[in-house]
Structure formats: C-alpha cells, structure tokens
Amino acid sequence: MIWDVHTHLSGVPGDTPEDRLARLLEFADRMGIERLCVSMGMNWSHDPPPDDLRRQNDEVLRAVTRWPKRAFGFVYLNPNHIEVSLAELDRCLRDGPMVGVKLWVARHCNTPELDPMVRRATELKAVILQHTYIKTTGNLPGESTPMELAELARRHPDATFICGHTGANWEMGIRAIRDCKNVYADLCGSDPTAGYTEMAVRELGATRVLYGSDAGGRSFASQLAKVLGADIPESAKKLILGENLKRILMPMLKLKGIKL
Amino acid sequence: MNARNTNEPAPDPSQEGNSASTGAMLLPSFGGVRGGFSRRTFLMTTGMAAVAVGGIAFVEGRAAQSSLKPKPISIGLVDTNVALGRWPFRRLPLDDTPGLVARLQKLGVTQCWAGSFAGLLHRDIAGVNARLVEECRKHGRGLLVPFGSVNPMLPDWEEDLGRCHAQYKMPGIRLHPNYHGYKLDAPVFVRLLHLARANGLVVQIAVSMEDERMHHALARVADVDLSLLPALIKDSDAPRLVLLNWYRAVKGDLLKSLADTGNAWFDVATVEGVGGIANVLTQIPASRVVFGSHAPFFYYESAWLKLAESALSQEQTRAICADNARRVWSHS
Question: Fewer CB near the terminus (10 Å): N or C of chain A?
C-alpha cells in the first residue's frame, strides 16, 4: 500500500482540475501508488487573497470529488487571512470532503496568528501539512523552517503536524523536529539524496516518517526511491509508504465515514 | 521522439480504486501489499519486452507481494554517472566501492562510468586518478570504468589528461568547472576540449553535484553556466560531451541548441517532474539521452524508477539504457 501525502495540481498538463488529477493518477498507477493527498490549485501565489484561496480550494474539491477513492483533499489556508481561512476550513473540511490542512509560504508558522487555525483544525481532527525549507540561498519572506514548525508544535501538543519537505536540508530539518512527537517528517520535494531516509528513521523512528512526492513538480519515482532505496527494514518501508499516513488520517476518515 | 503519452486514456472514474491495486505479477516490485506497477504494465510502458526479445538479458521475476525490495535484474544498463569515494559533507550509504558495485550489479547495471568525489576539491589530481584506477581494478568486477578528473586550473594539467589517455586507457574524463573555478569561455577550457578530442576522450561535465539550495553554507558553488557551450562544440572537431546533472541549469532553447550540435548527450539523474524523462524527449531526441544515476550521492533507484514512470517506447528505452552510451564511447 502506497499513499502519497503531498501532491499538487501544478506541474502536470490539463485544462481542468479533473484533467490534471487524471494525469497524476496515470503516473501514480505506473508507480503503484494507491492514494494521493492533493492540495492547492492549478495556479499558485505566495500570499493568496481570499478569492484566490477559495478558487484554489474549489479546484481541489472538483478534482477529489471526481476520484474519492483515489484522492484526499487538503484545504489550503492563509494565516494572513484568518477569518477567511477558518471559514474555508469549515466549508471544505468540516462540511466538505477534505481531510487535512495545507499551509505554504504566506507567513512564518511560528507566529501566533496561526494558533486559531491550529486549534480549529485539531478540534476537527485534521492533520496540518506545513511547507518547510532551509535554503542556503535564502528562504522566501514568509517561508517557514522546521525549527519554526517545532515552535508551533510545542504550543499545540494535541495537534498533528506534517513537516513538508523536512526542510529539504534534511540533516537540519530532522534534528529540528526530533523532540516534537506530534510532528511527522515528509520526505518529499527534494533531490533523492542517499541517507535521508536512513537518518529520519534513526532519529525519529519509522513511525514518524511519511512518503510524499510533491508531484507534479517532482517525480513520483525519484521520491519513492528515497524509501525503496534506503537501507532500512522492509517493515519500516511499509510504515513510511502508507501505513503511517493511514494511521494519522484514520480519526478523520472514521469521522467522515470513509471506508477503505 | 515521444509525444508524451498523449495517446493514453485518462483513468476511468468508474474504475477508480482498481488501477493501482490489482496486484498483478510484479517485475520491479515496490508496491507491497496492494500496489506495485505490474510486470505487464512495466513491459508495455518501457518497452522492456522488446529489449528482452532483442537479446539483452532481462530476467523476469515475480516479486512476492509482501516484498518491497526492488527486483529488476539485467537489461544491460550502462550508468554514465557514478562517483567513487567520499562525499565531502556526509557519509553516503554506498560510499564503499564493493558495496556500491554489489548493489549496482543486483539492480542490473552492466557498466558504470565512474568519477571521483575527491576530484572536486583535491589538488593532487594525479593521485586521485591513480586511486580511482586502482579502486576500479580492485573492486569493480568488470563493472567500473574509470573517468579521471582533470582540473585545467592546476599547473601541468595536460599531464593528468595525458595519463588518463595513455597510461590508464580511460575512455573519458570528468570535469567540474564550477568546483575548479573556471568558466566555459576560458581559453584553457577550449584547449582542454581540443586535447580531449585529439586523444579520443569523451568529456563529461558535471553541471552540478548538489542542489545549490542545499549546499553547505561555506561551500556554495553555482551550477556550471553552459550558455557558451553550443558555440564551442558545434564543429565536427569537438569532443563528445556528456552533461551530467544538468536539468536545473539547462532549459528550453539552450537544451535544444546543445542537442543540435550533435556532440552533446544528457543524463537523466536530475530530471524531475512526473513523467520527467518523457518530458525531456519532447524537447530533444532519445538519441541524445543516456542513463545516469548520480549514485551513490542519489539513491540509485531514482533514475531506474524514472524509466518506469515515463511511458517510453522500446527503442527509446534501449537507446537511453545502453545504446547511446555505447555509441558515445565507440566514437571517442
């Protein structure tokens, strides 16, 4: 069972969200990937205004509604628009089919403005996928690091966070989240540098590591290689490829009556 | 040239939930309990069936559904992008040559063009190349072909190049212009190309070794700027160039103009995006693309799995996996 925690409707051809998810699923099928978590729309902006935020979520809703047994939607929120984001959380997740939250680069995630969104998502049993990067060349103005996510996670010990990309500079990212048991490492969206998954399993334990691709911008294949090529036990690979994600999504899936 | 899967049907929503979980016989099986791309799908999408018919050994394997170990065997794969030794900034799981060779053999590689990580920073390049040759001889099991490093910013670099050719009988050399501190418009680089051609050497240029965003803060090295290269290699007296790890640095017109020279080939190690290799083939012919893994810096499985992800024809697969590299070598 392979579940991909991190995919998008960008970087893949198609005029509509449905077309794009169809294309993603073709590639996923080739690689044996059963389910995709999808977030953000066909065109992105770093700090989407309310209309754009709703448009992007609408596109994901269209796509995942077409393939409810193959794709899960994550609602995209912007901490620079708290009230709108809380309303989107209700619309797309509480009252809609989405199962998780996606936060990108609009605002550093350690700022207190995120707290109401995290509290509400946790009440709804939603996991929160926060993009993180540590770029030697310099992060975007609002781009979070794993160190900042760790701050947020310590303020919200009951919430479940997924550290998107694990900072990409993974030797630092893994260390940053090591003592936060409510933070999971998402392997996606960086080059398939050898040793990444071995270190994640050694320092975090296999139960806290998740396979993700960041497709369509990234290849499913190059990111799968991080797990399949790693020198770790097969039991750990199974956890990382799907069992961990299934476990942390299960409270939400049960709540929504989603049968697997 | 591949039209990038345009004839493939879109998934049928009425069949959702089935396509990734039919659990058919698996060739390279990674799917575990329910997933895995089926052997049949793999053969169809990569053209491996015809490769097998064509006589290249390709041992079918039915992987246990519970197994997550890759089980491709042999397709006569030539890997043009491997490096031996230690990466300066971390230990890599396969940075011991015997371990690396065992893994590559297991995964079906029959020949590796091997450079040296030490070639990036060491000044005693002659020593680096001597050790590379010895390592390949001692542990290579006939798999490793040494590609010596040449740094034209060092005094008497011509002697290093000459030894690669005359003493070690190497088919080619590997260059790191960014780590060695020269641009491709430097006269010494033009002279190096001339000497390489005169000695019949393939020239590999490692455009990058690591995503620039991930570099150690004290060792930031920009990707090699290839914008001047087409003009340098457009003539028939240019050497054959294999560009490694080029994908982030070479786009659009530059990619096409390099390919149009007829003297440049491109490896697949850093090619990204869903169906990435097929996307590249919409821009340049398959005859210009060679297999390269960038192992052990990258997980070897990345390059290998990308072949499966793209729906390549049998001719494209055969060309990329082996024929193009053999042609590059044979014409050097």
Answer: C
